[in-house]
Amino acid sequence: MQGLALILVIAPFFISFLLRTLAWKQILPGEVIGTDFSVIFGLTYNFIPFMVLPMFASLQQLDLRLVEAGSDLYASPVTTFRKVTLPLSMPGVVSGTLLSFIPMSGDYVNASREFLGSTNTPMIGNVIEANFLQTQNYPMAAVLSIILMAIILIVVASYVRRSGTEDLL
Asked: In order of start, what are the domains of the chain with their CATH numbers?
């Protein structure tokens, strides 16, 4: 069952990012297209493998004797997860979050009118693309790109520091 689940997560990578997003435009009902829901759905679908695969690798290395010891010491399953499984799998959670957050923050494909979004669902990637390609305001596009990069750097550094996985930096 574990191998089948892994194949289902990896299988979408054999198809182009643009084709996957365009396919969801055809699958979703017409009244859903162009809403914030469709953009968030597309982002989630396209970037969920980047979250699942590092967590899977981290959980594969988990020593199950530690989980068993938690239940032997009369800890509830929730407490065992919170006190044993989650701290030991934290590097996978942090890696997955960073691998999905960084490209997602600059994504402009899902929110564009040609795919799942509309003009009412602007993302920073769409604003940069509009300044660069449509209005050819290159200085504004460059400033927005640098601001986005600085915000991502600050968020990533604080997230890694708070999660206690500084060795990932």
From this structure: 2-168 (1.10.3720.10)
